[in-house]
Amino acid sequence: MNKIFLxxxxxxxxxxxxxxxxxxxxxxxxxxxxxMILPAYFxxxxxxxxxxxxxxxxxxxxKKIPDTDNLxxxxxxEDINAAKNKMGKxxxxxxxxxxxxxxxxxxxxxxxxDKQPSLNVQSHIRSAMEKEVEHLKLQASGINEDVLxxxxxxxxxxxxxxxxxxxxxxxxxxxxxxxxxxxxxxxxFFIFLFGAQVMxxxxxxxxxxxxxxxxxxxxxFQLMMGKIIGVALVGLTQFLLWVFLTIAIMGVFxxxxxxxxxxxxxxxxxxNNRVDQxxxxxxxxxxxxxxxxxxxxxxxxxxxxxxMIGCFLFYFLFGYLLYAALFAAVGAAVDNDADxxxxxxxxTIPLLFSIVMAQHVVNSPDGPLAFWLSVIPFTSPIIMMIxxxxxxxxxxxxxxxxxxxxxxxxxxxxxxxxxRTGILLYGKKVDYKELWKWIKYKG
Length: 443
Description:
two-stranded antiparallel ribbon; 65% helix; D-Maltodextrin-Binding Protein, domain 2
């Protein structure tokens, strides 16, 4: 046991001192924090107010296109050519030209700008014009617009999960789906990333003949286990550092720039005042966005992060150990990376199959296919992490964990049989028939 510990120490210290480990450990949290910070930061930076001049030859849209927090519309009576000449001088963001319609209402318009207008700007203008044209057509047809507005209905469907003891808990399918998919993909990523490191490390030691010196002091099984566990600890260290550093970066940003991630303020509209319908719609849209934000916060607060993190660490660790033993066996059986392809395919099939079936599992997390894929050791690390946010019966979770530990023990025994023979074998092309012979060797 002391020799295995020494190998673990060697593998761990050698890898954490590498420049690539340090760079990725620092770069990873920065990238993850940037994905959360930059959208909010640039959204604040884009708060510059743009002025758009409207040249409306139809006369229909005068003061009908509402201003927003970032867009102000000014209506001018000059022709389009004169307006174009003033664009650069008066600092206009764009010119909206609505030509005189050939029939009753305009069907098109043109937006002139020095730069490409954003999609939000175009959508806002198009939506405002479409609503006004629809309003005119309804008036011409003698249809009361208030009647159409009154029959529109929004249905809110809340999902309530009932426990065995009669307790009720609000569930959020969308959040569970995203959380499960992200956790499953992370497991898939880590297994491949650190499993491949084990395989390359075995190949390097074998081709450089360093392994011959090491084997003279330790048994092949001790060397394999020390290498697998050492790399596992490296991966676990890097993952935990990513989590803590990401949280630290987010915390520093919130303290330094508290206004960047602040909630939007809602405008109060007094019922006794006469209010333009556009302002009412704007207010209702802001209220809807606020309700969506509150719903997201409620959904996030409903997640049991203790269970998620604990299960993630378990399935990451034992899922990696199971596959790392097979990766180590492949590295011992070949002399270079090119020869690994024929043996890598059977190992990667269960992982790829898990990702392919992830959507089916999300749609039916309690179905028979989801159950079996979440208890079979080769697919359970990914599929069970996808199921956990939806709620997994205690029996399923314990069965999956026990079988995964037993699967790790079985693959380790199998890999050790291949490893002890292949680690000192050079210059011979190995096939599956040869591997079977190594497995059957006794002693």
